[in-house]
Fold these 2 entries.
Entry 1:
Amino acid sequence: MTDATTTLEQDDARAQPSVKAADIAANPPQRALRLHRELDEVWSDLPGWRGFFTSVNHGTIGLRFMATAFVFFAIGGVLAMLIRAQLATRNGVFLDNDLYSQIFTMHGSIMMFLFAIPLLEGLALWLLPKILGARDMAFPRLSALGYFCYLFGGTVIVLSLLFGAAPDGGWFMYVPLTDKTYSPGVNADVWLLGVTFVEISAMAAAVEITVTILRCRAANMPLTRMPLMGWYLLGTSVMMLVGFPPLILGSILLEVQRAFDWPFFDVGRGGSPMLWQHLFWLFGHPEVYIIFLPAAGALSTIIPVLSRTKILGYGALVAAVIGLVFLSFGLWVHHMFTVGIPHMALAFFSAASALVAVPTAVQIFAWIGTMWEGRVQFRLPMLYIMGFFATFVMGGLTGVMLAMVPFNWQAHDTHFVVAHLHYVLIGGFVFPMLAAVAYWMPLICGRWRVRGLGEAAFWLIFIGFHGTFFIMHLTGLVGMPRRVGVYPDNPEWEWLNLISSIFGMIQSAGFALFAFDVIMQWMFGRRSWRNPWQAPTLEWAMPLPAPSYNFASLPGPRQPDAGSILPLARGEGLLPGAPRGWRETVVVEPGTGRPQHVAVLASNTALPVATSAAIGSFFAMMLAGFYWVAPLGILATLIVAWKWGAIMGTDRDHPPADVAPGIRLPLHWQVRNTLAYTGAVALLVADATLFASLLFGVGFLAVVAPNWPAPESGIATWPMLAVSLGALAAMALGTVASRLAEQRRADPSLRVWTRLGLISTGAGLVLLGVIGVWLDDPTRHARDALRGATLGFAVVHGVIALMLALRADLDARTGRISAERRGAVPVWQLFQLFWLGTSAVSLALILVQEVL
Amino acid sequence: MVWLLRALAGPVLWAALFSLVYALHGTGCGLGWTDRPVLFTDLHHIAMWVAWLAGLALHVVLVLTMPVGSGRARTVTAAGAWIGLVASVFTLFPVVVTSTCF
Amino acid sequence: MLAVPLLTACNGPLSTLNPSGPVALEIARLWWAMLIGAGLITAMVMVMLILAIRRGPMLTEGNTSERRWIYGWGLGFSLSVLTVLLAFALWVGERMLARDDGAVTVQAQASQWTWRFVQPGPGGQPVMTEGVLYVPAGQPFDVAITSTDVIHSFWVPQLGGKMDAIPGHPNLHRLMADEPGVYEGQCAEFCGRGHPFMRFEVVAYDPAGPLPDFASITGPMVEPAFPEDVSGFEGTGQTEIPAQESSE
Ligand code: HEM
Ligand SMILES: [Cu+2]
Ligand SMILES: [Cu+2]
């Protein structure tokens, strides 16, 4: 065991005298090679191109995410070079204004949505099971589904450039510029549909990361002893669950406005462009922290290892993460300081923006303190970490400046902001990620790097970066706005831009060299030792490169860290091998980490790629403007989703699995609180945020938008009320039936309840349809459009509930539900309840609107 | 897990209070509450002050009651309660210093 | 060698570092103060970092080091700096708001990709112009900003910060020019193809002297952003508009 490991141990023993991790006896040792063969057979991908379409293994998918993200980074980087080439002189002629708009919009959108977010998702997918001591993520098929949505969506977005149809409204797509009147082409649709399609992968990753961290940790690893990376990614994923829905809602509303003329953002008919800005930045600011947190997690992991000590202030860092997660949702208006909001409201957000610097400062000083306590080893990742400090501190400080309202009024929308955002994004995300790549490369490819190249790449990037962006602060202060491709009347800006452009090329050369270095390491590096950094965390408790199954036996209290590599390989940990020929991992209680059951995970399947193709067909038809055939895409999606459900259950009881001496745990089919259940709860958290954003829209437009009150509603009040209450009653009946179905699951009456649930859910949907027919024309006024949207929300959830009811009914009939097995019924209950709850709130809201 | 929820109580209260005061501010400016004198000031100020002070009082209660456990769990629960309190003081103190609807 | 281009850039017609009115001046001061502070903090953190790397390992007793780094620097230092800065910035901001104090109101209406203005002309009568806004120097004026199509932003860096022109949401923006002169302005919010060219000028004239020639245009009058503010043109309070001299 390394010295770092021991100090970590001691520290925690000191920190937690009362909580004694319960011991779990070791399994008898076996031959490591035999275990390896047995597991690899079960866990490895199919060979060749079939592997590409069918792999669901987190190692494969995570790496693929990261590799794809770096490809998009290269594309975004090429666009950046085009921008810099254009701006190098004041009359740059080689991009016209239309093309320039496309290029900067695509640069920003690619960097944010196709590079930064997917890269962190990939890192999380690849790293989490390894560092937490599990064999895979909680939902392997979901990882693959996310990947293909990302790949297909990203490809379409990038290809649009070749057809001159790329988005051109800036990466925040402000309406009215992006509505049909001012952007009649397909450009804006590419952004709205493409990004939403890609965001499916973000939502999938968010659900998955949350569940994995809470429930797929090493046995008896309490949250308080989880590696800090776990806390950081937990913060990230919760932020994604709550942060992305406003954007998704906004994109849907704007696309509906563009396609069907529903006036959510049209001032003439009671909408407001400000609603878009609020929804966008409600997502957009947390987004920055979503990007920063995983990078900070990597820093908190790497810095203590390369300082040969333990991290300073574990508890304080966890608190800082909590602080960041919350505070970052209270800052969004700082992107809107110039839209005419009164000073007091600006002051709230200015103060919150200043305050968010405090948890950031806590982290910075904790890292410096860690290095102060330890003995810093100047190896390549450390170099990038120095790059991080030198860059991010300045970016943070300019961020605080921009949070000061009066200064923001001058600097907003100038190149000062462009400089600031690159200082935080490249300083706070790219440098730490490059450090992370350098640090984890040996685990990825089992090889050690080629000497010298990495350092050269670092210096090129570092010098190039500061040369490009430092002076750009001044470019902004002397008046150059962002998003202009020519500035014929301002020769005084020219030399500033020329310097930025020259250094920009140096920086790109650095990134190219970095990529070259990684490829060289992959192909020609010498074989690496085990645990080359002598790190304590569990991802190093495995041979290099990491095997497909991660751990031959899963770590428990007797195999707490990287020092346990041999006992784990010999099967002394939990659940050794793959005795049943399935992919299995241990699921724990979220807080204490007590093992609860064994989850049987999915193995190679083409279902995810088929599903994303089905979803993609819907988006493609919307993009092509074939609105009336687009429902076919939804139908296709439902069909694949049905298949998905069909393979999830089992029609017989399985004996419990031997996990460790004296510990036998049930398989997941025979427990209620499965990973899927936790996942459904996480998904509903996101769903509830989407609904809350919609309610925010209703309230916001009613109070702020001009041209209210809306015209007299043509709805016949009493019949409408009767039908609405009837729909609610049907939903309530379905909810009750789903509960009874679970309670009576061992009983023949089970089938009555599932059938009743199915019928009442169907009836609820039909009544919603009646309401839809009676609603006022949604193109008339934003109020009517919002009512249409609310109804649409209810219908979508009705369809989901109906699918689940159908599943439960069929399961009941085919014997997949029994005293021991509950099938999809618990999840069906959740969705029924959610459908009922949100619909009741919507109805109450509409009643209030009518009465007032 | 319960200790984690306790750690989140303070920040959640901040989020609720922040949204409430922001909403009161917007509604007040929209409905002209600044023109309705109450005591030595106007309805708009009074509404926001009452909400703010009540929230701060709740925060103090959380700071006193939320920390539990020992070791790291205690650090985090205590820190959570304090984060909430400091955030509510710091981000909402403009209700007593800046002008309302300009 | 760099000094000359640096000075020309800083004194350029669109530079925020070349303030010509109280609002811009206050903001420029805030900027210089923040720059000094940020420079010092950056230097301090870098020194700490270098020291942390240079010195050998010497484990301090666990709690003291945590107290020093987390509570001392992380919380104490950052919170106090931020509190002072925030208070200062709010105080600066508070004094540059447009209030109901009878300042001259002019209208600015943005459209893809021109600016139309309405300002008090000869005899206090509203005059409509395109691309040039005429205001009296030495006294505050409010710009009532609207848009007829997409979002734009009204920005005259030498006079003060920017304010967006948003359809359906008129905004009021307070500015002032200390001296008579011509100040350049531009649209700061991306508004489509013509965005780089959406420039305008603000001509500040001496209110005591003769009125300048208003390069007026005809056409449908710009709608007043705040109908009740039209009275501003009657010259309430200090806005005494001298009768036009025949300027030949
Ligand atoms: C390779 C180095 C990079 C260079 C030289 C560069 C250059 C630029 C420039 C000059 C602009 C301003 C365009 C304009 O306003 O006209 C810009 C905008 C932007 N960049 Fe970068 N960039 C680089 C890397 C990145 C990275 C790594 C990210 C994010 C992770 C990023 C995110 C953005 C965003 C979000 C915008 C705003 C786009 C918009 O205004 O819609 N950039 N970049
Ligand atoms: Cu932000
Ligand atoms: Cu513009």
Note: The pocket of copper (II) ion (ligand 2) is lined by residues A 285, 288, 331, 334-335 (CB under 6 Å).
Entry 2:
Amino acid sequence: MVTREETSRAIARHERKEAIRRGVRRVVVFLAFLVVLALVYTGYKAFGESINDAQTEWPVVGRVLPRTNDLTMPPIIDMITELGQPPQRNSSKPLAAFIAEASLFTFREAAFGFFFGMVLGLALAILMLRSRWIERGLSPYLVASQTVPLVAIAPIVVIWGSKSMGWLPFVWQPWMSVSIIATYLTFFPVAMNGIRGLKSADPAAMELMRSYAASRRQTLMKLQLPAALPYLFVAFKLAATVSIVGAIVGEISGGVTGGLGRLILDYASRYTTGPPRLYASVMGAAVLGIAVVGMVTVTEFFVMSKRREGSTTS
Amino acid sequence: MTEHETQSPSITTTVELDSVSKVFNLGKPNEVHALDSIDLTINNGTFVSLIGASGCGKSTLLRLMGALTHPTEGSVLVNGKSADQARLDRDYGMAFQTSGLFEWRTVIQNIELPLQLMGWDKVLRKERAREMLELVKLPEFGDHYPRELSGGMKQRVAIARALSFHPQLLLMDEPFGALDEMTREHMQMEVLEIWEKTGKTIVFVTHSIPEAVFLSNRVVVMSPRPGRIAADISVSLGKRDFDTRESQAFFDSITEVREALRFKESNR
Ligand SMILES: Nc1ncnc2c1ncn2[C@@H]1O[C@H](COP(=O)(O)OP(=O)(O)O)[C@@H](O)[C@H]1O
Ligand SMILES: [Mg+2]
């Protein structure tokens, strides 16, 4: 008996180790890809620079492949060194500090957007689970909501936020409007995957709950929501990336300052005076995206570690 | 088949079906007459097996008793109440071919589930779940997750869960259908042991003749399309043990059930 206990504990330990090893492998692969990407970039840059006037008559090399210079493709080393330099003359802070501050600002908007989107999406999914009619009536509108271009809604939300939120116990800030814009994008994957996940509960388990005379609420909390978790985590990862996109686009089209969106807009408009700055700030956005998805993935690992999906090698 | 009494069923009657018919998709092109005028009375403490070819309505009959579906005609009484009321009163436990364990709950938490839904105190819950684990002989597996158990162990947990709130009636739908022969025979012994220990009424669906005969006091043979009761055979083998499966009485009962099944087959 003791040996059986020990065996299963050993298996659990092995699985944990496996999971950590898989995580490390992932990071290594990611870094290797980054190196490859940098090499490809640098390689093409060198190639594009070497195209000279004589070759512009050549069929592919001269006509199709664009020529490059430091303006179109700034050297990677410049992007890195630029991070340590102040982005404009009258400031003493390095570019990295600007990007970090802007990232945090955008992260806050995205985080609230993610949270409210999660709540709203789940609420909608549970509502649609309640009745077929609600689901049929609601889902076309949900889909339609996502086809409305963000640039059209963003200014409305920002104006509406600054004009009509006086009744709140706190002062409405422009970034809060951006969170609402992010919410507009994040609720959708959560609602759609949520309803699928809630319906994925094993029919035998549903009958079991019925045989226990379980209430709807009990069935939801004890069976349907836990069964939906794998689906929800897929949605949360989507929602996390989309919340960043929503926040950046929301900032840009709503004219909200302080975040990555505004920073990117600034550096884009002054691109010719310093191309590496734009590249660096876009990379800031990418890092932020990877970070938020990473957070969701880590949460998923801990929440799901007891489940088959979470702990078997696949 | 026993005569039914609609008025004041005696205390010894657990399940009473009175000319029950079940038609699925009534009035549609895919209409199915699953059951046709079934009369069946099951006395308290009996072990009854329902046997018949696949599709003859065994599961439907069991689900009617559990109020998971409702009769098109006729009435179903459980403990003298409507099946629905019995469900609300938690008068029965259920176990299916798939164990239906919640994979995010440990074994002990799975067994506690019905008690938790009924609002039991945490300490009492744990205590009862431990008792149940003893009953199904898995005392050391309480903190394991279902995925760490074999098929037979999962079914034992499912049975423990079904019995956790001490229902008098246990409804089982091919609970050992997915198990290998050896595990299956082992589980049969254990279910009999539980039955003897607890005195439950058990309705057991199977399509294995030896299983039905080995387990039951009574084998209800069903015929398909529409589902009817073809024969009602009592089995008296005394206390079951390892030799039972090799006894003459066992073979005689098997023959009797087999002939009842075949008779209906040729009579269609
Ligand atoms: N929910 C349902 N809808 C339509 N037909 C059903 C349903 N459940 C069972 N049936 C039909 O009723 C008949 C009896 O099914 P069932 O009780 O599952 O048989 P068994 O358990 O003996 O194999 C079958 O013909 C089956 O197709
Ligand atoms: Mg069946």
Note: The radius of gyration of chain A is 25 Å.
